[in-house]
Amino acid sequence: MELDHETMGLVIAREELQNKHKPPSKKDPFATEVARGEAIKREIERSIIAFRIITNKAINNSPQPGEELAWLTEALALFSIQLPRMPREYIARLVFDVKHKILVLVKRDRVIGGICFRPFPAQGFSEIAFCAVTASEQVKGYGSCLMNYLKDYHVGTYRVYHFLTYADEFAIGYFKKQGFSKNISLPLESYHGFIKDYEGATLMECQLHPKIIYSDFHMTAKKLNDLYKSVKEMNRKKGGREYKGIEELFQKFDGKVLSPSDVPGLEKAESIPLADKNVVRKVKSILESIKKERKTFWPFLEPVNPKEVPLYYDYIRFPIDVKTMNERLKTGYYKHERLFIADLRRMLNNCYKFNAPESYYYNAACELAKFLRNLVLKKFPDSDLLPELPST
């Protein structure tokens, strides 16, 4: 969707004007996040909450304010309560380890949230060990706010653009929401041997962008979403045009096949892609192979006769057979092998569904599945979709 500078300027001006007079919509998926983010900003401005990065300095005999030691102790208690599966001794070891740092969220002189992490600047990542918000302060946006603050801290202080963490089944949803993925982009040698493996947990990664201010990301995302919707609406109004019905064309051409360019409104329509000749040839070959084995696979060659099997079409909503597939082939329906293989699978599944496992037809479908699987593997070796035997 390409826009010139003038149109983009109009879209931005329109959005700014609308946002001044339009209350946030409850249906807007960003509205809740924006409201929480703005509420947290006001709490920061009024000094109700504060973020602090702390670490245990006492082990190195360095002076440390008593306030920080109190926050470390409160963070330990918070992690122990909110992460009951983690041994308290293990949590304490990491919280008071000089190599680990704690981002604490302090509200009215009490730690209500925190993230324990260990930076590996030379390796280009930080490991997140623990992340928690006290139960009474959850669902207020503090968890997202903590993670966004940590992202800004890493981008601005360490120039580190990757987070790694092991998430258990209860934490995966939270980390996904914060931009983490199970797909790890870092090379194995960057982190293998540096972070602890957790049995039964999933390794996840979050990549950071150096030009994003994550603490403002909720508002940025909403503005981008609003602009996108405005552009779509503007294009719809700009390009929208109604045409009268095409009854006259039917009368004028009396059943002749028309080109899309002859239909008002379709003069500039993109042409429908033709089926791949190579796919057509292979599909035709497979269908011919089935027909050659008529003695074995005859039940699948023609549509089921409703007079002979009255209940068939009550149970099978999407019937398919070799004859119908041949007709589809002639009309150019099979533009990709997946469409054809999907029909083969449906034909087999219909048979498995309607017939009893000990019946002749069910056994014939099993034999056909083996026969087709070999043919499909031979004709379409790269396909990830194959005819299947019934699941037991």
Automatic annotation (TrEMBL):
Record key words, sorted: Activator, Bromodomain, Nucleus
Is Zinc among the key words of this record? Answer: no
- Which subcellular locations apply to this protein? Nucleus
Q: Which residues form the Bromo domain?
A: 292-362
Q: What GO terms describe the biological role, i.e. biological process, of this protein?
A: positive regulation of transcription by RNA polymerase II
The Swiss-Prot or TrEMBL record annotates one GO molecular function as: histone H3 acetyltransferase activity
- Which part of the chain is the N-acetyltransferase domain? 49-209
Cellular component GO terms, alphabetical: ATAC complex; nucleus
Looking up Pfam families in the UniProt record yields: Acetyltransf_1, Bromodomain
Record's CDD domains? NAT_SF
| Major place of residence | nucleus
Entries under PANTHER family matching the protein: GH11602P, HISTONE ACETYLTRANSFERASE
The family annotation for this protein states:
Belongs to the acetyltransferase family. GCN5 subfamily.
Specify the protein name.
Histone acetyltransferase
List the source organism: Enterobius vermicularis (Human pinworm)
